[in-house]
Design a protein that fits this description.
alpha/beta, globular, 6 helices
């Protein structure tokens, strides 16, 4: 019997499977989510040289990094949100590694977001997608393709107005459908977080975080290159750093997609 992993290696070698990088570069220019001043803020990225082939280390180069766990393309663990704080296996070091890998379901709402930056994915839109592409399987990553990653200017990416940030996200009923009825691994977005920019004013506030993490599900934020994935048929691998009691982690998200 042919080994499925041997077949995969052969497909990669022949170019029948593409490896797609869904990760934004991480550095001092990486945008960081803003919170009201009454809350503690996440720092931006700083990179300080320890040595670079010099008197501090003549044959090696390395750096000291300082950043928040939820910076750049990152993974949200259930313990990140109060609704998931008491769940078993809820932190980056205790989540079973099998749960970092799953099929991708890509829902394209790029045109909707171009017309309305505050667009919310609804249950009706999910069900329409399923009528075209089939049911979302248990254990899938649901990726919301919005075109937001094309906003390379930090101000446009954060899109903050006088009444706060404006960016797309999920209606609370859509989050419940995905977390409970479809039993997904989690959701992924191109925006800075998995909730809409105006989600602080929703009922409940930040509904996607509240629902997803309360159900033991995950989030991926600041993804890119979702336009290189089919609606179905790709596999996503998103493994955070094994930070002890980590609430999240910058992550290199890759997808295996048919060429």
């Amino acid at each position: 019997m042919t080994n499925v992993l041997t077949e995969l290696v052969d497909a990669l070698t022949r170019g029948a499977v593409n490896v797609v990088d869904l990760t934004q570069p991480l550095g001092p220019a990486t945008p960081v989510i803003g919170l009201p001043p009454i809350f503690a803020a996440s720092p931006g990225v700083t990179i300080d040289v320890i040595s670079r082939y010099d008197e501090r280390g003549p044959a090696w180069y390395w750096n000291t990094l300082r950043l928040g766990e939820h910076t750049g393309t990152h993974f949200d663990a259930p313990i990140h949100w109060v609704t998931g704080r008491d769940l078993p296996g809820n932190a980056c070091d205790t989540i079973p590694v099998r749960r970092f890998v799953g099929p991708a379901c890509v829902i394209d709402v790029t045109a909707d977001v171009a017309a309305n930056a505050d667009f919310l994915l609804t249950t009706g839109r999910i069900e329409a997608w399923e009528r075209e592409h089939g049911p979302i399987p248990s254990g899938a990553w649901v990726l919301l393709r919005t075109g937001w990653s094309r906003r390379t200017d930090a101000a446009a990416f954060l899109n903050v107005a006088a009444d706060g940030p404006h960016s797309p996200g999920f209606d609370v009923r859509a989050s419940r459908l995905l977390a409970h009825d479809r039993d997904v691994l989690g959701v992924g977005v191109e925006t800075i977080g998995t909730d809409a920019g105006q989600a602080a004013s929703f009922d409940p506030p930040f509904p996607n975080h509240t629902v997803m993490h309360g159900a033991g599900k995950f989030g991926l934020a600041s993804l890119c290159h979702l336009d290189q994935l089919p609606a179905t048929g790709a596999i996503v691998i998103a493994a955070p750093l094994k930070i002890v009691q980590g609430s999240g982690s910058p992550v290199r998200v890759i997808a295996l997609a048919p060429s």
